[in-house]
Amino acid sequence: MILRTHYSGEIRPEMDGSEVTLAGHVHEIRDLGGICFLVLRDREGLAQVTVLTKRADRKLVETVRGVSRESVVLVRGRVKAEPKAPNGFEILPEAVEVLSRADSPLPLDPTGKVGAELDTRLDARFLDLRRPASMAVFKIESAVMRSLRNTFYEKGFIEVCTPKIVATATEGGTALFPISYFEREAFLNQSPQLYKQILMATGLDRVFEIGPIFRAEEHDTRRHLNEAISVDVEVSYADHEDVMSLLENAVSSAYRYVSEICEKELQILGVDLDIPKTPFRRITYTEALEMASESGRKSMEWGDDIDTETEHYLGSLIGEHYFLTDWPSSVKPYYTQPYEDKPEICKGFDLMHPSMELASGAQRVHDYELLISRIKEKGLNPESFEFYLKPFRYGMPPHAGWGLGLARLVQTMLGLENIRDAVLFPRDRRRLVP
């Protein structure tokens, strides 16, 4: 069998005369009579295949003229340097084989010349992802994950995989997806939080995970989904300031990495990436309320969660990534460490982009008795968390960590209107397929 030897992006005009084999989808056909152009698209870009109809084999000409758009083809031929062709070269084919013929008409136009609504694109996601702009997003997302992993490995982290089927809620809330688990009820995990903390008792010290989380919240917004990929870390012998520093450097490094290796994808998307400078600005919860109050907007009571309207106002005022710190203990989960001298305030933080929250984290409670007390304060029953609490009785080091939304990071990095554009197959309250 003839195998692909090159992606389109690997071919250069300097390869003039070289024999190559390309494989991909038929992006476009232009038949001008004496000359016929087949534009082949693979994941690295486009390649123009030029057929001189009077000189070429008749069967080859019939194959090219008869193939439908988006069919899968294998093209074997020679590179010809041609300044007028895309990327400065064309392929003069010796053989064109149709591996899979596409039906017509297509559910949408993958060239992007004819627009389509988001729902139409998601319904035919396999075809939408052939659009260079859609593919560029996920190549960038891959680079973001690689950068994050590089950061963690360079700092001595161990990658872990925690359960996604659990017996109890991570944060004691009601936003859970129940599932039938043999003779019992179980739930899809909201977060790896409890397991990350348990691992701190093992001596692993520094762990990270990139995996799915599930929230049964009835949101219908451009930034919420019911299944998301979360980037989570937990660090022993660290406080909230330590892991905030880790987070801001990981985000800034991801921007830098994308700007270095995804130049073509950024160009396709028309994005001029501005690498955020570290350290990010720190604003306390109390300062945020004061800033919002000074604007003449409706005032919020101390102890309220910051609403979306105030969040957007602060983002427009600050105009860059920033941390919201020193939250009321009543707002944050039970595992968030209160300040010793001001227990009404805790060592929790959120990482904010001007348009939305990206991450949430904290120094955790590691004292067993305090943790029991905090669980009860939240109206929860400690007996429901016995598997989680047990390690705290046998030597739990101080620790801190955070969870970062991967799709939100990519959405804000690229200025995407909807988070669904940063998820291959999004799951929300209405969408369960494809």
From TrEMBL:
Mg(2+) 2 binds at E357, S360. It comes from Methanothrix thermoacetophila (strain DSM 6194 / JCM 14653 / NBRC 101360 / PT) (Methanosaeta thermophila). One of its GO terms (cellular component) is aminoacyl-tRNA synthetase multienzyme complex. Homodimer. Gene3D superfamilies: Bira Bifunctional Protein, Domain 2, Nucleic acid-binding proteins. This is Aspartate--tRNA(Asp/Asn) ligase. Its cofactor is Mg(2+). It is found in: Cytoplasm. The record marks P86 as: Important for tRNA non-discrimination. Belongs to the class-II aminoacyl-tRNA synthetase family. Type 2 subfamily. It catalyses: tRNA(Asx) + L-aspartate + ATP = L-aspartyl-tRNA(Asx) + AMP + diphosphate. Keywords: Aminoacyl-tRNA synthetase, ATP-binding, Cytoplasm, Ligase, Magnesium, Metal-binding, Nucleotide-binding, Protein biosynthesis. Residues 103-434 form the Aminoacyl-transfer RNA synthetases class-II family profile domain. The gene is aspS.
